[in-house]
Amino acid sequence: MLSVTKHPLNKPDLETVIKSFSKSLSNNFKEYSVKVVDCPDLTVSPWNLAQPGLCGAPSVADVGGVPNLIPTPKVEKQYNLDMVADSCGLPGCYVIGPSAVASKLLGKNAELVNNVKTGKDGFVKSMYTKIVDDEENVFECKKYPHNEFGLLGNLFLCRGQPGKVIHVTAKFRTGSLNFISCLNRGLAEDIPDPVAVGGTFLLTNGKAKLHVMPGFSSCPLNSDDDVNNWLRFFEMSGPLTHTSVFVSKDPGLDLRLEHSHCFSEHGEGGHYHYDTSPNTVCYEGYFNLADSIFRVDPPSETHMIGRD
């Protein structure tokens, strides 16, 4: 079993979260809405998730971490989602969220959107985006048939059941924060205790700055500048389907506080940074609050490089 620390959360009521999201959105978007709704069927296009809902024992797991990638990759750090689910006391659960791929399976480092029903009746609908040619900067976004990932992952675990969730829309960005940072800033400013959130969102219209990791660096990455010079950045067009995990405050677990990866039906995807079309951008998302944070197999040595 993996090393796991469980941190139960003092979850705020949904109305408090709605007020927090709304206040922050009002400072960053021209139009917005936040409300509690019954979760729609998220298996349909363009969401394309493996389970219909985001409810049933919702939890967040931060697995491994950026220090497994930077300054030099620890390629032996590979994780099985069934093992992660079991270690968190949620065998057979549904798992979504961003991570790196298991490079031993794909043959190269890449961005991954986990979208997996674990357990004996499990199945995989995950997607990866990788640089096919490091010299030409050519990428591909394809199905990833494995329930293993590598190095680091920020995961939302639940039973995939219907239930009440928070529905957020935002249009026409007027502030400097990206969609997820805007929501997370509101929680951090208004709610004293840590709040952990997971879910999915669409960039339905507009474009976004994304990165895709190339092959592992041949030399150590010792600064954020080194990391940015190694990464490959692109502007990609919506609709882009994201899975996202964010935590308002770190309760001493060495967490990555925000992480979102996306895929699409038109062959584009990667790690979300921000939209590049503020005058036309439109977002829509469904989110749920976690009951607990699980810190799984944290690196023995840590740093803050490369956590954007």
Backbone shape:
globular
Structural class comes to mainly beta
Name the helicity range: 10-25%
Got a strand count? 19
Contiguous helical run count: 5
Give the DSSP E fraction (strand runs of 2 or more residues): 35-45%
> Overall mean pLDDT score?
97
Report how far apart the termini are.
30 Å
Q: How does the major sheet shape up?
A: 10 strands, mixed
Note poorly predicted spans.
none
In N-to-C order, the SSE pattern is: EHEEEHEHEEEEEEHEEHEEEEEE
Radius of gyration: 18 Å
Describe this entry's structure for a reader.
- With 308 residues, this protein is mainly β.
- It is built from 5 helices and 19 strands.
- It has helices at 14-26, 81-87, 103-106, 179-190, 224-230, and strands spanning 4-8, 29-38, 59-64, 78-80, 94-101, 111-117, 123-124, 126-133, 138-144, 148-158, 164-173, 196-205, 207-212, 232-237, 240-247, 258-263, 270-275, 282-289, 292-296.
- Strands 1, 3, 4, 5, 6, 7, 8, 9, 10 and 19 form a 10-stranded mixed β-sheet that branches.
